[in-house]
Amino acid sequence: MNIILFGPPGAGKGTQGDYLVKDLNFYKISTGDLLRNEINKKTKLGIQIKTTIDRGSLVANTIIKDLVENTISYHSVTKNLIFDGYPRNLNQVNDLDYLLKKYVKKISCVLNLKVSEEIITKRILGRELCEKCGRIFNQFFNPSTEKNHPCGSQYLQKRSDDKKQIIITRYSTYTKETLPVLDYYKNVNLLHEIDGDDKISNIYEEIRRIIDPLGT
User: Fold this and answer.
1) What is the pLDDT of residues 32-54, one digit of tens each?
2) Taken in order 214, 25, 123, 50, is the CA torsion positive or negative?
3) What is the pTM (predicted TM-score) of this model?
4) pLDDT by residue (tens digit) across 148-174?
5) Which of 110, 121, 146, 153 could be cross-linked to 4 through a Cys-Cys bond (beta carbons 3.0 to 4.6 Å apart)?
């Protein structure tokens, strides 16, 4: 089984994907993680990617395709896959269709987390990542405390692209380029809509209700 987690920036795709990885042994392909890994390597490509992301723009489809294919080819036999944050536009839909055929895979379902702009803004502006343990917290919904985060607040960092103007730009880009992807997957009867404003646990229960009958 291979699924796509869809939704605007800050919709909670990463959190839900992590639950599925833990419970059902999926391998998550997050284009955001792939891009950040390249940035952290401080390669020429990584510097180019960082400049693009800091402007609130989308990285070129060709770069994304190559990064995704490297991951699919490595896990093509041993793992079921979750695509988190990909595809973002119709060109990437065509790229993914090509890669799936190449590695003899198919998409079982597409899950769209529908989230209000107000909630998204709070989720992104309040997001904090611990550079020591890797856990993600939120100042509004899940703040770091001495009880739940022994590493301490000194290790908490914000992503360079978690700024209000960038959020507005990214949401506008999402509306323009990625909503047509929903129509594509709706037309092939793969799309399921989920209330992303709900509690994290309730969202996960709804996801499991949808995917469990599909088997593996």
Assistant:
1) 889 988 899 888 888 989 998 88
2) negative
3) 0.77
4) 999 999 999 987 666 777 777 877 887
5) 110
What's the CA gap between 199 and 90, in Å, rounded? 30
Q: How many angstroms separate the CA atoms of 23 and 201, rounded?
A: 14
For 37-77, strand residue ranges (E) read: none
Top-tier CATH class for 3-115+176-214: alpha beta
CA 27, 50, 111, 77: dihedral to nearest 10 degrees?
A: -20
Sign of the alpha-carbon torsion through 137, 110, 85, 69: positive
Taking each helix axis from N to C end, the angle separating 61-75 and 90-102, rounded to the nearest 10 degrees, works out to 30
Distance between CA 93 and CA 105 in Å, rounded? Answer: 14
* Structure tokens, 31: 């284009």
